[in-house]
Amino acid sequence: MSSVDIDEIYEKLLKIYEVRYNYANPRMMLYYQINQLVREGRTREEVIKTLYEEEGELTSEEEKKLEESTRRKKGEEAIKKTKQCPQCGKEVLIGFKLCPHCDFDWTLPYRPSYTSYVKKPTSLWYLVPLLLGLIGGALGYIAVKDEDKEMAETLLVIGIVMSFIDILVIWAIYSYYLSMLSRLL
Ligand SMILES: [Zn+2]
Questions:
Q1: Distance between CA atoms of 164 and 153, rounded to whole angstroms?
Q2: Domain total in the chain
Q3: Which one of 22, 54, 78 terminates a domain?
Q4: Binning pLDDT at 50, 70 and 90, where does residue 116 land?
Q5: 158 and 174 fall within a common domain
Q6: Are residue 68 and residue 100 in the same domain, yes or no?
Q7: Buried-state track 40-63, b at ≥16 Cβ within 10 A, e below 16
Q8: 121 alpha carbon to ligand 1 midpoint, in Å?
Q9: Where is average pLDDT lowest: 120-124, 170-174, 178-182?
Q10: For residue 168, what are the domain limits?
Q11: If you measure from the C-alpha of residue 116 to the centroid of ligand 1, how many angstroms do you get, rounded to a whole number?
Q12: Which of its termini does the chain have fewer beta carbons within 10 Å around, N or C?
């Protein structure tokens, strides 16, 4: 038996596996089955021939079923003409190199970055710890920590620094009045 014949039989056997068994991956199943029998000492040709003889020809009903499933698979492939943008999640036509929604570039190596479409908190939040010190820093931290962790920490630091400055200013005013008072006495 020539190898061309064996390839033909293999393809027929694969079709039998596709139509008769509910394997998720018939090609893989057949591959394992053949390999297992080959390991027992038979040649690949012998194994394929034997398996095919054991299965027997496809019935006309099975032929029809196979044709139908092939047609369905082709239809599904034709329908799938879009891909999902990894950055904004929208469906984009297969041929696009740039996402029309967020300008994601498929030609560049992909680095997951969600910062470009996650809503950033307003920078007005920086005024809160500037005016209220530590309390403002804590308020700002709680308010923005889910949207922008980095900004939340900055607000907290500003709050702490502002509190120190406030204490210094109060201390300076206090000592100024104290010295004025001592000069009067
Ligand atoms: Zn996009």
A1: 17
A2: 3
A3: 78
A4: low
A5: yes
A6: no
A7: eeeeebebbbebbeeeeebeeeee
A8: 22
A9: 120-124
A10: 123-184
A11: 10
A12: C
